[in-house]
Amino acid sequence: MSTVLKGNHSCARKSRFKKLLFSLTAIFAVLFIISLTLFFSFKDKIYFTLSITFGVTFYHFAIRLVIGYFTDKIFRRRTNPNSKWFSQKKFEHAIYKKLKVQKWKKFVPTYDPDQFDLEYHSFEEIARSMCSAEICHEIIILFALFPVLLIMPFGSPAVFIITSVFSAAIDLVFVIIQRYNRPRILRLIKRKA
User: Fold this and answer.
1) Cα 155 to the chain's mean position, in Å?
2) b/e 109-147 (16+ beta carbons within 10 angstroms → b)
3) Which one of 2, 81, 108, 177 has the fewest beta carbons within 10 angstroms of its own beta carbon?
4) Burial grade of 108 (CB within 10 A; 0-12, 13-18, 19 or more)
5) Where is pLDDT greater, at 82 or 9?
């Protein structure tokens, strides 16, 4: 059973990863406020650039926390793991094999491993949690690309493009892991039935 969910780590790791996300969000919020204050005080372009950099980075961390919270509340108990959207497509298996997902997925942290723990949840609940996590990361990908629209009013295209593409790519990794793992859980549910 544990081979199915490798990549979903222990509770000790959960609190460290969760704390890290909250801490980084707070740090970038403070850096954004400080650099913005310095820009308005001294009108120096370096503070403007720092404000954009810290502001966009804060945004990317904050959307993960906000979207994660709401998607968990809205979708976790309402998703259908057997729906067409969540079904692994024929071409996906070959892609995941080529990407060697099996080898690296265990190194990717999990925000809340309790949701994927067989001691506390049934296979069905875990499958729904996987769907909710996938929805969360798909929504984050869309929001991660939003800052590109700010290039026109603020300039600094490199900051907006690099942070947006990097952020979206990170969440794509989490989508891949959910889509890779879920068929195994669904097979276990069928066997149990």
Assistant:
1) 27
2) bbbbbebbbbeeeebebbbbbbbbbbbbbbbbbebbeeb
3) 2
4) middle
5) 82
Under 8 Å between Cβ of 110 and 14: yes
Phi, psi dihedrals of residue 74, rounded to the nearest 5°? -85, -45
Could you tell me if 51 and 32 are in contact, meaning their C-beta atoms sit under 8 angstroms apart? yes
Distance CA 75, CA 133 (A): 9
- Tokens encoding 82: 């057997």
Tokens of 90: 């024929």
Query: Is the torsion defined by CA of 116, 119, 121, 123 positive or negative?
Result: positive
Closest by CA to 167, choosing from 67, 26, 76, 45, is: 67
- Tell me which residue of 9, 29, 26, 5 sits closest to 17, measured CA to CA: 9
For the record, the structure tokens of 8 come out as: 């979903």
- pLDDT band at 1, cuts 50/70/90? very low
How many Å apart are CA 153 and CA 84, to the nearest integer? 40
Does pLDDT of 184 surpass 50? yes
